[in-house]
Design brief:
The complex is a heterotrimer of chains A (285), B (273) and C (284). Chain A has 285 residues and is an all-alpha fold. Chain A folds into two domains: 40 residues; 238 residues, MetI-like fold (Orthogonal Bundle), CATH 1.10.3720. Chain A is built from eleven helices and two strands, in the order ααββααααααααα. The N and C termini of chain A lie far apart (47 Å). The N terminus of chain A is likely disordered. Chain B starts with a helix and ends in an 8-residue tail after the last helix. In chain B, helix 1 packs across helix 9. Chain C has 284 residues and is mainly α. Chain C is built from twelve helices and two strands. Chain C has a two-stranded antiparallel sheet with strand order 1-2. At the A-C interface, helix 1, helix 3, helix 4, helix 5 and helix 6 of A face helix 1, helix 3, helix 4, helix 5 and helix 6 of C.
Chain lengths: 285, 273, 284
């Protein structure tokens, strides 16, 4: 017994120190990375960087058409993926029994889809959308590929949001003689809306940071896109090209990285705020 | 003979389009795919061309030379880009050079070696000389920076030194030039080969690299333009048949002396006029 | 229970929508197979494992070293990231004050939003030269592991945090009532209770690490070989596709689709494993 008492505090101390060290390392690594990106990128960043066309392969000029292409890619992805994501989540939560064969097949597909590497989505998008469907290198091909990629994460978070709506509400709507459809439309989906939007944001975030899936689908063209059938370069692809292929492109690469990180921080902050909102609501109920 | 006729043909097209451009404006879309080395240049030329002919769109997609040749042959692209001359088995296609590029050996700035014989280069890249001491440098492990399979820079390098890719004992395999330069900057024992223009630019920016001459020939853009530098290649636009219409107009535009500043801006060497 | 006709229609419609996901998985598999079929048939799958080298233009198709490299980088990354991520989650849940916990969580969430190209750029410019000083060439298995570890750290931390949050309050109160120290409580009660959630998060991160392309391509050195130490360069399956896809035609292109197929199979196996795990959890 005396042994045990003597040993325990020392082990406790080690654990305590290790936990604090881990937290510190995480914070420091992040600080080092951010410091580097801000330090290198800030000098090139300006209003005109955001609003002018790139010149000399991106060494000079800005990234306006690239920002527009990125936004269009994300819009295509959201427009296609949102109805599919909400539909599938509703199916899983309110229309099939958990553990039934259908639910298991869909869940399994989702888990596999969530794990498919982005470069494989790129191969698939290139072979299917660009060549087989004849969409070519275009924002449409890229956006559809991103939609496939973001689908699982969006479905999962919508599902979580719907499951968080108390079952009492479902029984209440049934008692009122509402059909499932109108209960969903008027009660359940509105209640889960913040979680659904948070899920959308997470999906967008993942899509916006994507490089590998886009190089072979939406392509390389860095001018202002005229339509969705035009090829358009996303910010992440631009950063990759400036770093790997353009001599003297680093400064612009870091500035573009800063813009992308800023964009993602905003998207994530919105997602975080919305999911907090959901949690607080659950607690107060 | 064949080449002469082709050049004459291009010249004729250039003449006819330059007179036509003022009267009837060109319309349509050109899809150009291929070499990642040529792509940034053609992208800029395309923008200048679009400015002159507002109803034309030039779509440039990056890939590799072999992809550019394949796309031009299959018709997937109107024009293919290759960072080399056409091979003998590609003679069914039409190639038109728009600029030249040289390839030179690059090492870290602190490296004591600045000239290597062809035999020494071979020994280094095949791993027979694994320490810089063996080729007259300060002691230190050699890091060989090689290019990924399919890159025409690699093909040209292998051809010049009569090597096979499987002979090379690479320590790092890279994709594009800028990655190679970054790798060498981070590694004092490294040696690799990149485009001369990019290397000269990086040196002028104070990047910690230097150009290494091989067999006594000092690498420079001027030597490439004069045709006295052995490791050089034409940047080529490839079409399935003799170019006509929009494609012909674009190729003639790309070769015109108006484009020389753009060529230099991308660190390539304009064709001698 | 009351069921209307409308619900029937909506249910059918939704079932079709849900079917899209399953269809998508099948389509992806089908297309990967279709594109790789010519080389699978002409060369045979066995040679992808037994050929001694990867020179598709010289008709040699050995994928095995890259398969190994993919697995090694991913496992290495997890070994580094798991303790740090779990530690960080424990800190923000049990040690930090309200404010500190919020900051720590915000940091981790922001880190999750940094695109992989930025990690790669940073790794190539800052990390690789550092490793080179210890042992050239710097671009190495170790560099890939470290960059990947940083990349998946947020995923590990966030999932561990979420798993710890689900540990029932009575369990915590009971442990406290027994007079256990905070550390003993964490080590013997709380972490074990959240174990399956933490492990599922680790499997998820492992999938991400296996699938990451650009960051690895920038720092791993990309030499096709079986490494004998962590300082040697390696090429992963994903980097192989990204490096050569743009250049590949014919059998070469088809053999890159085989790389993609192999990768997808590994990740699917992981998905099944983590699914089994959560299945076991919901029954247990």
């Amino acid at each position: 017994m005396a042994d045990l008492i003597a040993v325990l505090p020392r082990r406790d101390l080690v654990l305590k120190a290790a936990v604090h060290a881990a937290a510190l390392v995480v914070a420091l690594a992040f600080a080092a990375l951010l410091w580097d990106v801000i330090g290198q990128g800030l000098s090139r960043l300006s209003w005109s960087f955001l609003t002018t066309e790139p010149r000399s392969s991106g060494r000079l000029g800005g990234i306006a058409p690239i920002i527009i292409s990125t936004v269009l890619l994300l819009l295509v992805a959201i427009t296609v993926a949102t109805p599919l994501a909400i539909g599938t989540a509703v199916l899983l939560v309110d229309f099939v029994r958990t553990g039934s064969l259908g639910a298991r097949i869909v869940s399994m597909s989702l888990d596999i889809l969530a794990g498919v590497p982005s470069i494989v989505f790129g191969l698939f998008g290139n072979a299917f959308f660009a060549i087989y469907l004849g969409l070519g290198f275009s924002i449409l091909s890229g956006g559809l590929t991103l939609a496939c990629m973001a689908l699982p994460i969006m479905i999962r978070s919508t599902e979580i949001g719907l499951r968080a709506v108390p079952d009492d509400w479902r029984r209440g709507t049934a008692a009122l003689g509402m059909t499932k459809t109108s209960a969903l439309r008027h009660i359940l989906l509105p209640a889960a809306a913040p979680a659904i939007i948070a899920g959308l944001m997470l999906g967008i975030g993942r899509a916006a940071a994507e490089t590998a899936a886009l190089v072979f689908t939406s392509g390389y063209v860095d001018r202002m896109p005229g339509s969705l059938f035009d090829s358009g370069r996303s910010i992440a692809v631009h950063i990759y090209d400036l770093t790997m292929n353009v001599a003297g492109g680093e400064k612009s690469a870091y500035a573009a990285a800063l813009v992308l990180v800023g964009l993602l921080v905003i998207i994530n902050a919105i997602a975080l705020a919305l999911s907090h909102h959901v949690l607080r609501k659950r607690i107060t109920q | 003979m064949l080449i002469d006729r082709r050049m004459f043909f291009i010249g004729a097209v250039a003449l006819s389009t330059s007179t036509r451009a003022q009267t009837t404006d060109l319309t349509g879309r050109l899809v150009i795919t291929g070499s990642s080395t040529v792509a940034p240049l053609v992208l800029e030329i395309g923008k200048a061309f679009e400015k002159r002919h507002p109803r034309v769109r030039i779509d440039v997609q990056t890939g590799g030379s072999s992809r550019g040749v394949a796309d031009a042959r299959s018709g997937l692209a109107d024009i293919g880009m290759a960072s080399r001359a056409l091979f003998d088995n590609e003679r069914d296609l039409f190639g038109t050079p728009i600029a030249r590029d040289g390839i030179c050996l690059v090492a870290h700035k602190t490296n004591a070696v600045s000239d290597l014989t062809d035999e020494q280069v071979k020994a280094l890249f095949t791993g027979k000389a694994a320490d810089w001491q063996e080729v007259g440098g300060k002691p230190g492990r050699v890091t060989i920076v090689n290019k990924a399979e399919g890159r025409s820079t690699l093909e040209l390098f292998l051809q010049h030194y009569k090597l096979k890719n499987s002979d090379i004992k690479a320590s790092v395999v890279i994709g594009d030039n800028a990655q190679g330069i970054k790798t060498i900057v981070g590694n004092p024992g490294a040696i690799g080969y990149v485009s001369i223009g990019s290397a000269e630019f990086e040196v002028s920016q104070g990047t910690a690299i230097k150009l290494v001459s091989s067999g006594g020939v000092v690498p420079s853009s001027a030597a490439v333009q004069a045709g006295t530098f052995p490791l050089s290649r034409p940047l080529t636009l490839v079409t399935k048949q003799a170019p006509t219409g929009l494609a012909a107009a674009f190729i003639a535009f790309a070769r015109s002396s108006d484009m020389h500043p753009l060529v230099k801006e991308q660190f390539f060497v304009p064709l001698q006029s | 229970m009351y069921r209307s006709k409308v619900d029937g229609y909506v249910g059918t419609g939704l079932a079709m929508v849900g079917g899209v996901c399953t269809l998508l998985v099948l389509t992806i598999a089908l297309f990967l197979l279709r594109e790789s079929w010519s080389v699978v048939q002409g060369v045979g799958l066995r040679r992808f494992l037994t050929d001694s080298a990867w020179n598709p233009t010289e008709k040699r198709f050995g994928l095995a070293p890259m398969l190994l490299a993919s697995v090694a980088t991913a496992i290495g990354a997890i070994v580094i990231a798991a303790p740090l991520g779990i530690g960080s989650a424990i800190y923000s849940r049990f040690y930090a004050g309200r404010q500190a916990a919020r900051i720590q969580r915000a940091i981790v969430t922001l880190m999750a939003g940094i695109p992989s190209v930025v990690f790669g750029l940073w790794g190539l410019v800052a990390l690789v030269p550092l490793i080179n000083k210890i042992m050239p060439p710097g671009t190495s298995l170790l560099a890939a592991m470290l960059v990947l570890a940083l990349m998946i750290l947020p995923t590990v931390a966030l999932t561990a945090d979420a798993a710890l949050a689900t540990v029932p309050m009575p369990l915590q109160q009971g442990a406290a009532a027994l007079g256990l120290s905070r550390e003993a409580m964490i080590a013997h009660v709380l972490v074990p209770a959240a174990r399956s959630g933490i492990v599922a998060g680790i499997l998820l991160s492992l999938g991400r690490a296996l699938g990451e392309t650009m960051a690895v391509l920038m720092v791993a050195g990309n030499v096709v070989q079986v490494p004998t130490s962590v300082f040697e360069p390696v090429r992963t399956l994903t980097a192989n596709v990204a490096l050569e896809m743009a250049y590949a035609v014919g059998d070469h292109r088809a053999s890159l689709f085989v790389s993609g197929l192999a990768l997808t199979l590994i990740v699917a196996a992981l998905a099944v494993a983590s699914w089994r795990l959560s299945e076991a959890r919901s029954h247990g």
